[in-house]
Write a structure and sequence with these properties.
The protein has 13 helices and 7 strands. By secondary structure, the protein is α/β, with parallel strands linked by helices. The structure holds S-adenosylmethionine.
Length: about 300
Amino acid sequence: MMAFVHQTVLKDEAVAALAPGAGKVIVDGTLGGGGHSEALLRRGARVIGIDRDPAALAAARARLVAHGERFEARVGNFGDVERLLAGEAVDGLLLDLGVSSPQLDTAARGFSFQQDGPLDMRMGADGETAAELIRRLPESELADLVYRLGDEPFSRPIARELKRAQPATTAEAAEAVGRAVPRAKWPRRIHVATRTFQALRMAVNGELEALAAALSALPRVLKPGGRAAIISFHSLEDRLVKERFRELEGRCTCPPGLPVCGCGQRGSFRPLSRKAVTAGEPELESNPRARSAHLRAVEKVP
Ligand SMILES: C[S@@+](CC[C@H](N)C(=O)[O-])C[C@H]1O[C@@H](n2cnc3c(N)ncnc32)[C@H](O)[C@@H]1O
């Protein structure tokens, strides 16, 4: 089996936001290689790790076995976090969104245009593959999806070419995208298929839907004083997190300068930082993936 190596993003910042310690129970909803979980366990917390990918769970279990009963791994979708916790309220929830490096780098998982493999892209074992999604969706819906989730200006010709080609492998899909985009318009810094592959991956795995479900469960999942920290890599995800956190925080409508709030419009959460936290230079130098990472955190008012 290939070694499971994933460079953890914004580790210190996420751990600081969650304020772990002895007696605290923290859910790592995107266990992956267990990098964040390990740091939380080292600070004395009990960690419940969730991942929909059985390969990630196996790797994290092996890495974290030394922490004994303080670490527990559960297979599932973090969108179902409330059900996975069976009503237990916790002190922290961490989400480090997206895919892990081993998922991207394993050709057979079908995420990569760099290495040929079946056009799969599922993080877990269930649901529709990317090849099946392309076959099922009408061309206009496929184009909308590539435009919305991939921010791809050539979404319409790409959807037309994908429907025509019915790709079964990642190489066939990447070639179809390449044919659809005029050569002079190919992006310089990224592969011509990057945006389309991102959109297909997000759709196959229902990534925005899972995030929305986890965000709406926050008030019930966290104890008073509990914290949520979410690292996103996509502007749509970051917007969803920002908007939901704002909603939870509520908005005071008192005139500025009033010594105490009199409107009572305050929510039951408070932000832990005004702006999203991003990676510093040393991390960016060693991990280019950190470039688009945005960490936002909130606390449920004790
Ligand atoms: C970026 S990696 C996490 C890496 C981890 N924080 C570390 O430092 O090793 C994201 C992980 O979350 C998992 N994942 C993504 N969406 C998920 C979802 N909706 N439910 C459960 N797991 C999910 C992926 O399978 C992947 O293993």
